[in-house]
């Protein structure tokens, strides 16, 4: 979890009684009288330093297959309990391609200077797809 120092106490109160022991990367100072119990608190600068040190020793795999899961989109579900829908590296571009022709009147590929103001939350599947279409076209995306 990433939080500011003031939130460490809140995390402790919420998670401590449940026996959860998360790692919390803190962006600023933690008050000395804040009880952290089982929460491991690490300064953000230390996280950055660990990442830089690991960059030369940890292999990064950058060629997923089209069947590899890319992300899990959570849905409130109109047919039952909320669930996570697994989207693959192949299904995301396929969905964007299927939807792309529907927005040609808004912005055509190759036009310069386009800006898209996203108004739905990024967690909304339609906004996610539209945003990816515009990013693929080189359009600047802003959230309003």
Mind explaining what this structure looks like?
By secondary structure, this protein is of the alpha/beta class. The protein folds into two domains: 53 residues, no CATH class; 55 residues, no CATH class. The protein contains four helices and seven strands. The strands form three sheets. A three-stranded parallel β-sheet has the order 1-2-3. Strand 4 and strand 5 form a beta hairpin. 5% of the residues are buried.
Annotate the secondary structure layout.
Blueprint: E1 2-3, H1 8-15, E2 23-26, E3 40-43, H2 44-54, E4 69-75, E5 83-88, H3 91-100, E6 115-118, H4 125-136, E7 140-143
Parallel strand pairs: 1-2, 2-3, 6-7
Antiparallel strand pairs: 4-5
Helix pairs in contact: 3-4
Order of helices and strands: EHEEHEEHEHE
Overall SS class: alpha/beta
Strand order of the largest sheet: 1-2-3
**Strand content bin:** 15-25%
Q: Looking at the chains present, what oligomeric state does this protein adopt?
A: single chain
Question: Which key phrases capture this entry?
Answer:
144 residues, alpha/beta, 2 domains, two-stranded antiparallel ribbon, 28% helix, ligase, ATP-binding, nucleotide-binding, long-chain fatty acid-CoA ligase activity
Short characterization:
With 144 residues, the chain is an alpha/beta fold. The protein has four helices and seven strands. Strand 6, helix 4 and strand 7 form a beta-alpha-beta unit.
């Amino acid at each position: 979890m990433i939080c500011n120092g003031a939130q460490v106490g809140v995390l402790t109160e919420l998670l401590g009684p449940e026996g959860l022991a998360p790692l919390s990367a803190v962006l600023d100072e933690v008050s000395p009288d804040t009880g952290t119990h089982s929460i491991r608190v690490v300064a953000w600068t230390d996280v950055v330093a660990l990442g830089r040190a690991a960059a030369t020793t940890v292999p990064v795999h950058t060629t997923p297959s089209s069947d590899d899961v890319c992300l899990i989109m959570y849905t409130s579900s109109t047919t039952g309990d909320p669930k996570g829908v697994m989207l693959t590296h192949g299904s995301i571009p396929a969905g964007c391609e299927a939807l792309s022709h529907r927005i040609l009147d808004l912005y055509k590929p190759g036009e310069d200077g386009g800006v898209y103001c996203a108004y739905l939350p990024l967690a909304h599947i339609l906004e996610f797809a539209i945003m990816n279409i515009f990013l693929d076209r080189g359009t600047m995306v802003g959230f309003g």
